[in-house]
Each structure stands twice: as structure tokens, then as C-alpha cells.
């Protein structure tokens, strides 16, 4: 019996694990093994491919030019929560179904957001560098950071991840506020209808929203200036939600206090100006990935692919 | 009018701030400015000194040899919560009063303990090094860490700091257990009467207890082996609560998973074997210090000194 064919783009970071743990279920088409331009590979080998597994956003984009090379495409499974790297209108127009990582990552992303916030405020990574460089015994006391307990924290996007961040911050005695498209009637936090007001009334912003036309460069110069010189930004959303150039200028000139960044505009390339700053913590888009979630995500991807090939409903479909 | 004299040993990290913010209240005796052995300085200049301000434990000890040089001593104010660096029996015998930092640091210490735990599990500092060294664009995906949400966490010492840690970890959905001298009837967490059992039943240990004869090297080889190869240790107590040599061996040989250390046996000297390990986070005894707590602690020290010199009760006395 022939195995169902799955084209893999990216590939997702879980792919080697998935491939070894779930053998003999699919035939994976791997363009990166061929010395061909992608469109040429697809035209030659993927004309009957119905299912595509793609890495999350950042460096990999599913453009209409790629979709045009896949006439039989009926399913896209992305290993991410976000779908900003997919040309949604084009996929919809062609009736292609989409599955994503569902809520699998919410806890991990929230844990990391809080970890980055503590790290920036309390200078954990900077202190670690100080000790490893042998400076503690030479230079004496390391300068203190800022307190987290009791701080006013603003969450941008109170979806599943944002809500998990809020729950965690309550344990630290923080005063949580949020901004989102609409007020959530069940959320016990102050709502600000615009992010500028949120920044003006809080000491740190945690970016938890999806990248959309509305959130593209939402965190701009005015928002950062409202946040102020001791203010901290944590981003576990997408790099393009922040005006990155402006943020770097604000960090260097002390117009904001610091930043904990898991995502960047042009991953995996991180602007080198950030490498020498002690008030930033740089994370290689790792917020949503733990060993445990890698295992769970691999299962979820396989379950979505098997559902598709057996004509049963997707486990974690993306619906409008 | 002559200002009341205060001998300063250490000095505490807050001392420069305290001195500049509260001028003309005390005459500070600063032995480190004199080119004399300490005992000779004290014998020459501190014979009438009644009040002593001392840095917290780690590198500074108030031994009976020093106390012997201070015949007029009536008050010791330490800038720490812990009093393990003070010769308590000798001070008690002489009727010397002691004031410490009270509960001032509990929130900051708990925030840092959780920050170190997230950092070790999720490899935050290691990821930051990876990005800063330009390895993300060269080597690709950074290996995932371990999940915090839902983990079984053991707290060693459920005092003020331990309780604040527990409260925070509840927000992460962790299952909290603890070990302490006695079961706390009000605490909603599982109690283990010995730390070995606690380690055997949890995935991380957070050391929050004071250093005493009973807790000296409490975390020994057997406890670490019970914790196991994915287990993590966080220490915001004192370095001597862990068998440091054995811990380093366990870290290098993979017998425990990782460690987040704010305190060490011989501060500010940190064993160099730790500098090259990616599964440890090293913090320069900074858990209890933030800008905000520096301000509050300076006020508290001044209030204790002024209470003493005006014969009113100490604000934060250490009582048996």
C-alpha cells in the first residue's frame, strides 16, 4: 500500500522527532534535500500533493506563488498557533483546510513570557554573564534590578496565552490590565480600548496577540514613549507587532527600560545592535517549545494528517 | 552636637545609597578606608562604638574575635534576613540586640526563585547566549527546554519566602509540596517530614530555608539522586545548605538536570567548573535586592538605628 504523501516546508523544528516517532505512516516530500529552486521542485514532484506540513511564521512563508505550484493542495497543517505566514485569502479561495497547534502552547508561552519579564526586570541573564565572566569577585556587587511584585502590567491581547499570563501574574501580586479588540466581560482586569492608554498606565507590556493587519507595528514610537524610561516590553507574539528599529533606538537611548524578546522581524537574523545591550534578553523563538510540547505537537500534527486522509474532521482546524 | 557613631562592616551593598540619602544623622566608622588589620582598627577607633551595621552573610562574618574588640557594642543591624553570619550565642551572652531586614525581601526573593526556575527549565540565559553569539542564524533551532506548568515542585522551608514562592507557583498550575521542621497546619500543600522524600516526589527543589546547624549541607548526594536526572535545584537560601562539590559533580555527570543558584559556598568566588555549564544559571546573590527594596531597606536600617539611639523599640528585632 502506498503511504499518503505529505510535503514538508520549513521544516518545523519538531519534524525530526515526528519522523522518527511515527514511521511508516506518511511519505514525506523534503524539498531541502534537493538542489532545486522550491517552485521547480514543486512543479516536478508535488503536483499530486494534497497535504502540506509547514513550519510556523518567522522565516517560512506560504505565498500565493508557492500555492500556485500545488494544484492538488487540500490541507495545510502548521506547527504554530499563528497563521500569519499563510496566505489565508488564497487558501480560502481554493477551499484548502487549515489546522494549527490549537491551544497546545498557551501554558508554555505564558511561562516564558513571565520568565522573560522577571529576567529583564531582575537582570537574571545579565547577572549570569557577570558571574561567568568572573566579574563578581573583581568588581563587587552587581547593580540591583527592578521589583516585579505589585507592578502594573499591561497585556496586549487577552486570548488563551494572554489569559494564562494574567493568571500567573496575579500570583505575583501584579495589577493586570489589558488591551484587545473587544472588552472580555468575564475578565477581572482593567480594559483599555487602545494600547497607547494601556502603555501610559502600566510599567510593562506583554505582547500576546496574533500578527494581523491591525497589530502590524502596533507597538510604535508613541506607545513606547507612553510606556516610559523604566518601562519593559516582553514579546511572545510576532516580531512585526513591534516597530523593531524604533524599539532598538528607544532601548539604546534609554527611552524604555528594557525588553525580553522571543520573536524578531527577520528571524533567525537578530539585529546586532541588540547583542551588546544589557537591558534586553534575547530568546530564539523558543516560547512555545518544550520537550513536552514537542511530543504533544507531534501527536497533534499526526492526528490532523490522519484525520484528513481518512476523511474525518480535523482535530485542531483553523476557522474564521 | 556630636552624631551617634555607627561602625560599618562589609559594607552592605545599600551603604553608598544610605549614606547619600540620610546625611548628617550618624557618624559612620569605615574600616575599609584605613590601611590597618580590622582588629587593630577596632581596638584603636571603635572602643566606644555601640552600634554596628553589617552586610549580610556570604563574605562577611561577625566572629567572637571581632566582638571581643567591641566592648561597648549594644546593637547589631544586619542588612540581610539571615543571621547565620553572626555569632548569636556570643551576642546573646553580651546582651547585644539584633535587627535584620524583617520580611522586606520576601517578595523579591520569591520573584527571583521563580525566575531562576523558569530560566533553568526553559533555558532562558542559555538561549540568550545562543542568540548573542550569532548561533541562531548559523546553527538553526535551539533545543527545547522543559515545561514548568503542572510540574511537581518541592519547597524546602515554608517560611515567608517559601510561602510567597508557593503562591506564585500555584498560578502556573504547579503541584506544590514542602519540607520544614514542622507541618504548617494552614498550608494547603503536601508536607514531607524529610527532604529526601520531598526530592523523590518532586521535579524541582526550591531552597528557601535559613542556614542553621540542621540545614548545613542538607541537600546532599542522596537528596540529589532522589531528585533525579531531570530534576532542578533552585537556591535562594545560602550556599552552605547544599553540598556544593557534590552538586557540581551531579550537574556535570547529568545526575541532576540543572540548577539556578543565587548563593554559593564561598561568595563572591564561584567554582569555575560552573562557568561552562549550560544547565545552570548563576546569579550574584541578587535575589533579595531590587532598586525598590534598596530604598526600603535603607529606611529600615536608619529607623532601627534611630530607634536604638533614642531608646525606643527596634522596628525589626531578631528574637529567638
From TrEMBL, chains A, B:
Enzyme class: oxidoreductase
Transmembrane segments: none
Any one Gene Ontology molecular-function term assigned to this protein's record: NAD binding
Gene3D superfamilies, A to Z: NAD(P)-binding Rossmann-like Domain
Domain spans labelled D-isomer specific 2-hydroxyacid dehydrogenase catalytic: 42-318
Pfam families: 2-Hacid_dh, 2-Hacid_dh_C
Domain of life: Eukaryota
Protein keywords: NAD, NADP, Oxidoreductase
Protein name, per record: glyoxylate reductase (NADP(+))
Lineage summary: Eukaryota, Viridiplantae, Streptophyta, Embryophyta, Tracheophyta
